[in-house]
Write a structure and sequence with these properties.
Layout lengths: L9 H10 L3 H18 L2 H21 L1 H4 L6 H27 L3 H21 L4 H20 L6 H71 L6 H31 L8 E3 L1 H18 L3 E6 L7 E3 L1 H17 L5 E10 L6 E9 L6 H4 L11 H7 L5 H11 L3 E7 L3 E10 L18 E5 L3 H11 L5 E5 L2 H10 L4 E5 L7 H9 L9 E5 L4 H10 L3 E4 L4 H10 L2 H5 L1
Parallel strand pairs: 2-4, 8-9, 8-10, 10-11, 11-12
Antiparallel strand pairs: 1-3, 4-5, 5-7, 6-7
Helix pairs in contact: 2-3, 3-5, 5-6, 5-7, 6-7, 6-8, 7-8, 8-9, 8-15, 9-10, 10-11, 11-14, 16-17
């Protein structure tokens, strides 16, 4: 049997999966053939043949159960399927022989049509398995050649012509089967290469995200912590500009990462309560120095209809608004840029539709460029783009983010007179506004902060200092386990990737101890891939805080698991 095992390879499984959708059609053709034979030829043979084809299809259905439930097949299961296929083809060959033996021209034509159908089925569905191709196609071909060359009453000349025609049909069927095999294998190889390339891209994005976000976390975290200190107005402005500059650097990284995630359908909107007017003011202030260098000014007008607090994704809104304003600055030398922010109830819902208009008096955009401006890697003015930089992804990402937030981005422009971009998106009105500042009542919250990058641990400590939290630091997962064994903590904030022992393995070990089963564990992650988050949840982590860490996000996430609130 080992010499025959190669014939019962995975190709049999592939053939089964591809041919299963034709089961209904085969049953219909079988029932129609049996009925016609019983009505127009002989009732009993037609009935018997109908029962035979029904038993053959039932055998195929039973033998194909592993493929129908997407299970791995064993050699014995594949052998059972091949046996069912042999029985089914014997039944169809029997019908061909019956029709041919009736000695009627129309019946012999019907027999030839049935054999042709079997050949077509063989080259279309069984080419991936040498054994099944030999059974279905080879058997039908031999029967066809035998009937046309020997078993017929035609004169020698007509018999030769018929045989040659049958031989041509068989040869072309074999050629089609070979071509089908080659194309199918080439397609599978291309798919495998694409999957490998996609996996490599995902791994590269995850690595790049982690390596770049880690130092950015320190820079942005320290700037946020410095803002809590008593500063002179000029010093505070410098710190805020430092923070926003770091966010701009982060935005460049996000452009590439977000485009890849959008293409893969893995980007999600994460709304939280925030101040839209303040966000717009920060983006305008960040771009104001560059506008002044060009001799332009940016004016922000926030309408009275904008609530003090809205529920939206500040990261994505800032990203969209930054793209629109920075583009206006690039293409507006010695001009005016007006940013207007307004809100109105969204018809038919209890939500709010935000409308942000960015108008400039710049160089404008040609109509032919405006039509394709939102396509990826398209620049309105390549010469300007070379001087000012940019990926050509900003507007494409902005439009797609707006669509994900229930809105859109539109543009109109006139060469020499300027451009106007309108961003709309939907927001929710928060039920209540919670200020993340102030010292909470009750005993201090004891937190274990685990990160291999010391700056990150210091940044978190500085952010939480106004809340009166007690912070204990650890440099890796093993250090976290040791610290938990020495003292009690209310919560663990742990990095995903660390040397010696990462957050994933540490969480699994923590959850293995019954005394720590209910301890909140929050993942600090610079990763962007969904599979990392799925692994973290499976290991027992409760929530995520994405780096660079936003102070408001840090405080609000910790507040969700603060056990003192449950005792109050």
């Amino acid at each position: 049997m080992p010499g025959w095992s190669k014939w019962f390879d995975e190709g049999v499984t592939t053939v089964t999966a591809r041919s299963l959708p034709t089961l209904g059609l085969r049953l219909a053709i079988g029932a129609l053939s049996a009925t016609c034979y019983a009505l127009f030829v002989e009732p009993l043979p037609g009935l018997l043949w109908g029962l035979a084809i029904a038993s053959a299809e039932a055998a195929v259905w039973i033998a194909s159960k592993p493929q129908r439930v997407d299970q791995t097949t064993t050699p014995r299961q594949r052998q059972a399927y091949v046996a069912a296929v042999v029985w089914m083809n014997l039944v169809w060959w029997a019908l061909v022989v019956l029709l041919w033996s009736l000695d009627q021209e129309v019946m012999r034509l019907a027999a030839l049509c049935l054999l042709s159908a079997l050949l077509v089925h063989a080259q279309a569905f069984t080419a991936r398995s040498k054994l099944l191709l030999l059974i279905v196609g080879g058997g039908a071909a031999l029967l066809l050649l035998a009937l046309t060359a020997v078993f017929n009453p035609f004169p020698a000349g007509q018999r030769l012509v018929l045989f040659l025609a049958a031989l041509m049909l068989t040869a072309y069927t074999a050629k089609a089967a070979v071509t089908n095999i080659r194309n199918s294998r080439a397609l599978e190889e291309a798919k495998a290469r694409a999957e490998i390339a996609s996996q490599a891209k995902s791994e590269f994005l995850a690595l790049m995200s982690h390596e770049l976000r880690t130092p950015l976390n320190g820079m942005l975290g320290l700037s946020q912590a410095l803002k809590l200190e008593p500063l002179e107005p000029g010093e505070r402005e410098q710190v805020e500009l430092l923070e926003e500059s770091g966010r701009t650097l982060l935005a460049l990284l996000n452009d590439v990462l977000d485009f890849a995630k959008i293409e893969a359908g893995k980007l999600e909107i994460a709304p939280i309560v925030g101040d839209l007017a303040q966000l717009a003011d920060r983006v305008v202030r960040l771009n104001q120095p560059q506008a002044r260098e060009k001799g332009s000014t940016i004016t922000l007008r926030v309408e009275d209809t904008v609530p003090a607090a809205l529920t939206f994704d500040p990261l994505r809104v800032r990203q969209c608004l930054t793209n629109l304003i920075s583009n206006a600055v690039k293409f507006t030398p010695f001009g005016q840029i007006l940013v207007r922010v307004g809100c109105a109830p969204a018809p038919g819902t209890d939500r709010v539709r935000v409308k942000i208009t960015v108008s400039d008096t710049g160089i404008g955009i040609r109509p032919e460029v405006l039509e394709r401006l939102f396509m990826p890697f398209v620049q309105a003015d390549p010469a300007t783009a070379r001087r000012t930089g940019g990926t050509g992804l900003g507007l494409n990402i902005t439009r797609r983010l707006a669509q994900m937030m229930g809105g859109a981005v539109t543009a109109k422009s006139e060469v020499g007179k300027g451009s106007t971009f309108v961003l709309t998106f939907l927001c929710d009105l928060p039920a209540a506004t919670v200020e993340p500042s102030g010292t909470p009542a009750g005993p201090p919250l004891r937190l274990l902060v685990v990160d291999d990058y010391p700056v990150n641990r210091k940044v978190i400590g500085m952010m939480l200092a106004p809340l009166g939290c007690e912070i204990v630091e650890a440099g890796d997962g093993q250090g976290a386990i040791d610290a938990l064994g020495e003292a009690d903590f209310d919560m663990v904030l742990i990095d995903f990737n660390m040397p010696r022992m990462g957050g994933l393995e540490a969480t699994r070990r923590i959850r293995a101890e019954p005394r720590w089963a209910r301890l909140p564990i929050i993942c600090l992650t610079a990763g962007v891939m969904d599979d990392e988050r799925s692994e973290a949840l499976s290991a027992g982590m409760n929530a995520f805080i994405e780096k660079p860490i936003e102070m408001a996000t840090l405080v609000s996430t910790i507040g969700q698991f603060d056990r003192r609130l449950a005792r109050a």
